[in-house]
Amino acid sequence: METAIADPQVQDTRSGKSSIVGQEWRPGNYDLRDTWIPVAHSPHVTGKPIRRMVHSHPVFLWRDGGRPLAAEFHPDALGSGQCRGGELTGGSGYFPVHERYNYVWMWYGNPDNAHEALIPDVPYLPRAGKPLPRNMWGQIYFNCSYELVQENLLDLVHADYLHSDIIGDEENDDDRVYVESDSETVTMIREVSNKTIPPLLRFLGVPAKKADYRAVAHVHLRSGVVVLYGKFMPGFAQPLFHPLVPESRYVSRNNFTFNITGASPIARHGFPLLSYVIGPQDDFMMKPQNPKYQARGERRDVSSRFDAADSRYRMVMAKLIQRQKEGDYSYLSDADPGQDIAGLLDCPRVD
Amino acid sequence: MAQPVAYKGWWPLCGSEELTDRKPVGVQCGDTRIAIYRDSDNRPRALEDRCPHRRVPLSLGRVTPDGFLQCGYHGWTFDGDNGDLIRIPNLSEGERVPQCAIRCYATTESNGLVYVCLGEESENPGAEAILEQPYRPGAREFRGVEHVPVSHEEFVAALMDGPDLVFGFTGVLFGERPLGDPRFDDGLLTLDRIAYWNWGGIGHANLGPLRHRADNPLMLRTRTEPVTGTTTAQVCDNEGHVLAQSLLACAPAARGTTAVRWRASVVAGSGVPSGKGPALLRALTRLGKSPFKVNSMIDGEALAALLPGPSDTWRQASRDSTPLSLSETA
Ligand code: FES
Ligand SMILES: [Fe+2]
């Protein structure tokens, strides 16, 4: 993995010159292929077919004898023999499917390349077994392409402004951000010492006025998956899984799971509810952003050194898209979406 | 897609009272989005409503205690005087912000409205280009903003040819018949037409016996500033005493609509005609009911059937005197 504190594309603020990020950045206009997408929470997939959207294609999901199935068409239509499957299902109409972490994952790409080993690792979710309590998972829709949400999750500074009522204004002794990346993922690691803990988080169970804080956002570009892990020391950990399903260039669906089984009852029940406050706050900004990133010929963005992770994200994304445009859907040797990231997150594995 | 506005001079985009030194107001004139706010000297400021960092509308942000406009997403802060980026939060001491400026628009206040000059400095016609409106606020003033789903040019034309389609005063019917041809008076296109009291719900002024009455108890006088269509509408008695009045500030808005910011009041005090009509109007306002409204749901069928009338004079004037051509794009 490459490691850097500041991205070379990001300007040096001391020089006073502004830098422009990348080529024209128009998220939502390229569907990355050959990836597993956690299209539904397992309990939502039953004998009765449901219809979901992935990259503007309808996907029908249901179970047959307990086994999850994903198809381009409703099973009734498939049964009639009148539908011909497309390229992504090798003509069969059926997508490769796998069930893990209480999600039904579908393969978006060439079915011949669907390997289970490419499913992203989520060390803090049980791989199989009973679903987590109902209040710990759900879905929020964002009115923008999934890339804008991934950028938002890689970005720390916005919390001080947009979520200041919940997260509080920043006060700390030291605040460091590291960015790592390979050809498939971007990771932002933030280490804060002696962070002032706002009243709401104290109420939820951080037992001190000040605590150290470490947060990692591990972003998989192809599948839309964001593995977030934060912890207060002392305090509780927040294993927040944010898989962003790219429904269309206008909507992404966050099928989240917050596995905070280790925290106090108050935090266990209260914390997941915050997503219904924080999510709409983010959407308030991302929704008007979206058309400005869809339009052609918009002026390029100006960045500061706080945008290192975001700039890296755009760079890795540009390379990935370029490769896929040239017909190369392979995973390069530096990348392994399924590799164990418990060490990177610094979190215990649940199984 | 909204079209650019041809006239690059002053447009009334906000009521003076709408602006505070805390929250900016986001407006759109043609295809231009602008964030307007008051700085610490109470001066209106207008900046392009787009943060250069991640393109979020600055109108979703806030005004800092020292009078600058701060983006709500990451807190980048801009100077309303020149559009300069002056602050990025969390930078260490000694670190300079990137050199970056956003579009800044000239502003001025007049007629209780904030006017924004859409053009560059060289296109600014100067504040004296804004004509004074005869509207005078009364003791009890009512205000509102409507977006009417018709283009700006057609809105202003309808206001002249069939004012009953676009606005109304409580208890008053506007007749079809103009009282004389439109005339320019202090630069304002002035037009009178017959009007009636209609407290009992007599019906349509253009039908039935009212139409052929010998004389009319009221008239509606509209005085329209030819470029923006900003209009003072007055209900007068036959002697020309104003009984009720409104100001309609018009500007082309998003998706081909017309933004109409209005204020209205009933005239009270000595010298004001007595009678049932004026008394009822005054009583209404005392109850907190507006004597005036703008029809945001314009009757499309009636609009389509409206014959050209006094608006011809206005369209001709617009064509003759540059830069009044409103419909052409730049
Ligand atoms: S988008 Fe305005 S400060 Fe980031
Ligand atoms: Fe956020």
Describe the 3D structure.
The complex is a heterodimer of chains A (351) and B (330). In chain A, a hairpin with a 2-residue loop joins strand 5 and strand 6. Chain A starts with a strand and ends in a 6-residue tail after the last helix. Chain A has two domains: 102 residues, Rieske [2Fe-2S] iron-sulphur domain (Rieske Iron-sulfur Protein, 3-layer Sandwich), CATH 2.102.10; 208 residues, Naphthalene 1,2-dioxygenase Alpha Subunit, Chain A, domain 1 (Alpha-Beta Complex). An eight-stranded antiparallel sheet of chain A has the order 1-11-12-13-14-15-16-10. With 351 residues, chain A is of the alpha+beta class. Chain A is built from eight helices and 17 strands. With 330 residues, chain B is mainly beta. Helices cover 12% and strands 34% of the residues of chain B. Chain B has five helices and 20 strands. In chain B, strands 11, 13, 14, 15, 16, 17, 18 and 19 form an eight-stranded antiparallel sheet that branches. The two termini of chain B are 15 Å apart. The C terminus of chain B is likely disordered. Classes of the chains: A alpha+beta (351), B mainly beta (330). Chains A and B meet through helix 3, helix 6 and strand 17 of A and loops of B. The complex binds FE2/S2 (inorganic) cluster and fe (ii) ion (FE2).
Quick description:
The complex is a heterodimer of chains A (351) and B (330). Chain A is α+β, with helices and mostly antiparallel strands. Helix content of chain A is 23%, strand content 30%.
Briefly, what CATH class of the largest domain in chain A? Alpha Beta
What does the largest sheet of chain B look like?
Answer: 8 strands, antiparallel
What's the CATH topology name of the largest domain in chain A? Naphthalene 1,2-dioxygenase Alpha Subunit, Chain A, domain 1
Instruction: Report the structural category of chain B.
Output: mainly beta
Most extensive contact = A-B, 31 and 25 residues
The average pLDDT of chain A is 89
Rg over C-alpha atoms of chain B, rounded to the nearest angstrom: 22 Å
What is the 3D form of chain B? elongated
H/E order of the elements of chain B?
A: EEEEEEEEEEEHHEEEEEEEEHEHH
Q: How helix-rich are the residues of chain A, as a percent range?
A: 10-25%
Instruction: Specify Rg of chain A, calculated over alpha carbons.
Output: 20 Å
In spatial order, strands of the major sheet of chain A run 1-11-12-13-14-15-16-10
| % residues in beta strands of chain A | 25-35%
Task: Spell out which ligands are present.
Answer: FE2/S2 (inorganic) cluster, fe (ii) ion
Query: Spans of chain B with pLDDT under 50 lasting ≥5 residues?
Result: 322-330
Count the E strands of chain A. 17
Put simply, the count of helices of chain B is 5
Q: Quick one: CATH superfamily of the largest domain in chain A? A: Naphthalene 1,2-dioxygenase Alpha Subunit, Chain A, domain 1
Number of strands of chain B: 20
* Portion in beta strands of chain B: 25-35%
What's the helical proportion of residues of chain B?
Answer: 10-25%
